[in-house]
Amino acid sequence: MLVRRTKAKRDRVVPLLQEAGAALAEYVLHARPRIDCQRVFLSHVAPIGPFRSSGAISRIVRLRLQQTGIELSRVAGAHLVRHSLATQLVGQRRPINEVADLLGHRSIDTTAIYVKVALPQLANVALPFPGGAS
């Protein structure tokens, strides 16, 4: 899927899982407001049209989390979705460069923050300390 004008002000091609593609097709065919606009995702409340800011997306994410009964200890929004994806990928032991590519990070150093969630996994693969107990 082509994502235009990302946070880094560049276009990116990202993989789309079959389930996500099916949900996207369902939205476009049956739920998307019928207006002449090239954007895929549109506001369903007046004024119907493209979202004016990422804040609108964050409000939708917070509302849906609250509706499912998920307790939010701090402000959550659209970034939480990105962070959750990265955390899950690291938890699945996906290569850090793959996670960086999916998130659109130019530097692996930017992605390294997500590695902290994998500390228990790192302990499992650590080499024994030379001269230590075996």
| Class per helix and strand makeup | mainly alpha
Total number of strands: 4
Beta-strand share of residues: 5-15%
The biggest beta sheet, please? Answer: 2 strands, antiparallel
The coarse overall form would be globular
**Element pattern in H and E:** EEHEEHHHHH
> Uncertain runs with pLDDT below 50, 5 residues or more?
none
Distance N to C terminus: 50 Å
**Arithmetic mean of pLDDT:** 81
User: Into which percent range does the helicity of residues fall?
Assistant: 40-55%
Widest sheet, order of strands: 1-2
Q: What Rg do the Cα atoms give?
A: 19 Å
Helical segment count: 6
Written description of the protein model:
With 134 residues, the protein is mostly helical. It is built from 6 helices and 4 strands. It has a two-stranded antiparallel sheet. Strands 3-4 form a two-stranded antiparallel ribbon. The relative contact order is 0.08.
Brief descriptors of the model:
134 residues, two-stranded antiparallel ribbon, 6 helices, single chain, two-stranded antiparallel sheet, mainly alpha, globular
